[in-house]
Amino acid sequence: LLPYRAYWFYLLDQGILRAGTANSDSHGLVDNVLCTPRTLVYTDVTLDAFDEEAFHAAVRAGRMTGTNGPVIEASIGARGPSLEPFAPEAGAALSIRVSAAGWVPVDEIRIVVNGEVARTLAAELTHPADPLAAEVVTRFEGEIALSELVPGGEDAWIVVEAGAPLPLSGDLDCDGIPDTSDNTGDGVVDWRDVDRNDDDVVDALDLEEGEPDACDPDQELGPIGHAARPDRGSAAYAFWAVTPGGYPAAFTNPMVIDWGGDGFDAPGVRR
Predict the structure, then answer these.
(1) I want to staple 37 with a disulfide (CB 3.0 to 4.6 A). Which of 68, 169, 237, 245 is the partner?
(2) What confidence tens digit (pLDDT) does each residue in 215-251 have?
(3) Is pLDDT at 202 greater than 70 in this prediction?
(4) CA torsion 182→188→190→195, rounded to 10°?
């Protein structure tokens, strides 16, 4: 998730508007968990009167969310996720509703504006008392004024994410893409987290050439590890049992704001 997320945001920041999708990438019964994650497509097409061209148009337009558990419904006025820029009405707000089955933990909601997390909702969320109850539980429902998220009426794109907090990661070669996670569990991502093979292992206290420089493009990288197996009694265990090595995650496609109605002015790549 983390490298693809960063690259997608990099494209959106340059005004290269492309739809994000979720895919299990399962080609057999044992390589990946079947049917998770999946893409939810917002369309007027029904199974009884399926229109393939209309469905494909909805996909190309980015009227979709991706999820392996949490379900996000987000809109600004009548406009939901889509690659089509629009001008919001004065005083518009971002409406968010997140729901999930009881066994799917939803610890936070992140509102991403132009690639940066502008707001995190955590204390505002509700959690089911019984994770194995049959009912779908609404974890959050509310609105946030656009004026609190987008400064000065500037054009912007907004993506809403929900699920578990993102794993701690780092970009050791500083190319803008996360490449290594906190594999030692010390709360810091650095060269000590790199998984070196037997041919080039060096003592962490006696590096032949010293500690690698920050942003060294030639240093070894990775991996980004899987989520640790939670304790059986924790709220996260049921989800882990369904999706081993995964963590709850959902995202919307962007809502692309063009305040002046004169074409979307992308924010550009951050330096």
Answers:
(1) 68
(2) 888 888 999 988 889 999 888 899 999 888 889 999 9
(3) no
(4) -20
Contact 124, 110 (CB under 8 A): no
Backbone angles phi, psi at 157, to 5 degrees: -120, 145
CA pair distance 69, 40, nearest whole angstrom:
11
Please answer whether residues 270 and 13 qualify as being in contact, where contact means their C-beta atoms are separated by less than 8 angstroms.
yes
Question: By C-alpha distance, which of 141, 70, 73 is closest to 102?
Answer: 70
Give the Cα separation of 31 and 29 in Å (integer). 6
